[in-house]
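pinned: reference chain
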Amino acid sequence: MKKTLKVLAVLTAAAALAAGYIEYENNFTGVTEYRLSPENSEGLDGLKICHLSDIHVKTGGKSYSRLIRKTAELAPDIILISGDLIDSRVSDISAAATLCETLCDIAPVYYVTGNHEERLPADQYVKAVKAIEESGVHVLKDRAESFEYRGKEINIIGVFDRDYPDFELIKSLVKPGVMNVLISHRPQFASEYSESGIDIAFCGHAHGGQVRIPFAGGLIAPDQFFFPEYYQGANKIGDCITVISRGIGNSIIPARINNRSEIVAVRIVVSC
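pinned: its structure tokens
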């Protein structure tokens, strides 16, 4: 009897520790910092880019105060959101717009849709995109905008989510002689982004592989299935660096394991 009670106590303690660890991984968002030297970044030394992805804002009044505080502490020059700001199953458009308004007070915000926005019913989709745009966000629907940093132009290209991006469109939006930044939800097309003339791409979608296995990497990601190639980090393919966020929120799979949610902070460092 005593042995059984000891086993139960150990199992209960282990379960409590596991639950606490998963709670930490999912709700205490960290910051991952990269110092990168993309092509065509001359004159952009010190530029700070904050990359947010897969926030999956949901109904229920969840506070994003930690996300806002950490983003503000990074003092970015621009903020990029690479899709799935809204969760299609339990969306809260008003909460997403309020979050965007607050982020716009920190720095200019550029946004593209993810697969969750694209799944919304037509009327909700129009309402969501309009609310995000009215919050002050630069909504880049298959177009480019110029951003100036210390007198140097940066060409920011954004593509709304689709199963297979229009690479000819992306190529047509690339500007020669300046740093071309792409915001696109899906990371598995890193090679194609490089071939399209992009210098640095920002993506999400993979949720860090959901479960990260030591020495094996991410377990599963949308569209890439088991042991995906592109699920996190700064990946150099050809002349393009594809930065993949593990994301902030969760969707169909409600928990992350060994895969802490993250804000990505990129500082451009011009190599000598």
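why pinned: The first strand starts at residue 30 and ends at 36. DSSP finds seven helices and 16 strands in the chain.
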